[in-house]
Amino acid sequence: DNSIYYSQIDRIFFACHNLLMYTLKLIIPFQLSGYYQYPDLVNGGIPYYYYLAAVLVLVLAALVFYSLKWNKDVVFTGGFFVASIVLVLQAIPVGPTLFSERYSYIPSFGLNLLIGIGIVNLLERKNITTTYTVYVIMLAYSAFLLNYTIKRCAVWKDSITFWSDVINQNGKVPVAYNNR
Q1: If we measure between CA atoms, which residue out of 166, 171, 172, 177 comes closest to residue 32?
Q2: 59: nearest Cα among 5, 102, 19
Q3: Do the Cβ atoms of 52 and 93 come closer than 8 Å?
Q4: Is 37 left (phi over 0), alpha (psi -120 to 50) or beta?
Q5: Model confidence over 104-129: pLDDT tens digits?
Q6: Does residue 156 surpass a pLDDT of 60?
Q7: Checking CA distances to 162, which of 14, 71, 174, 177 falls within 20 to 30 Å?
């Protein structure tokens, strides 16, 4: 377990990165894996994109609070998302993996509520072009998610399939070879 080599400051950067990844992978699932290994140190430090994630989280937090001028929905739904996922962001280590997308099920209610509010607002405009566009996008997105869900369910069929998928995603995970 290489998670013991990281400082508490590194863990804050991990938490920022993970917050972004949970959000992004909920909206656009990509490169999903059952096991996300901690990163290798680069010249004694964590990779640069963890630092960039912290900057982006600060910018997004400022935008969320700025949105209070018009509407409280973004703050409420974003707050729900963050409050319900904060314990698994790895600022305080919980488990051997850096990230586990399965922990985003309950927090996804906040993000999905915000998306639903946005869709209702678009549909209330009663513009026929906008209405059809929204329905077509929702149908295509639902089909995409359904297809991806079916593929991911097959990965969790059994331990051999699961750990083989982890190895295919990242061949540098010793526990995957051991467990397979």
Answers
A1: 166
A2: 19
A3: no
A4: beta
A5: 999 999 999 999 999 998 889 888 88
A6: yes
A7: 14
The token duo for 20 is 């972004």
Q: pLDDT tens across 63-105, in order? A: 999 998 888 999 999 999 999 999 999 888 887 889 988 889 9
CB atoms within 10 A of CB 89: 22
Contacts 24+ apart (CB under 8 A), 159-162: 162/34
pTM of the model: 0.88
**Tokens of residue 120, six digits:** 């209702």
DSSP string, 107-168: THHHHHHHHHHHHHHHHTT--HHHHHHHHHHHHHHHHHHHHHHHHHHHHTSSHHHHHHHHHH
> What is residue 3's predicted lDDT score, i.e. its pLDDT?
54
Count of alpha carbons within 13 angstroms of residue 50, beta-carbon side: 21
The encoded tokens of residue 162 equal 């699961």
Q: How many whole angstroms separate alpha carbon 133 and alpha carbon 127?
A: 10
Longest CA–CA separation in the chain, Å: 57
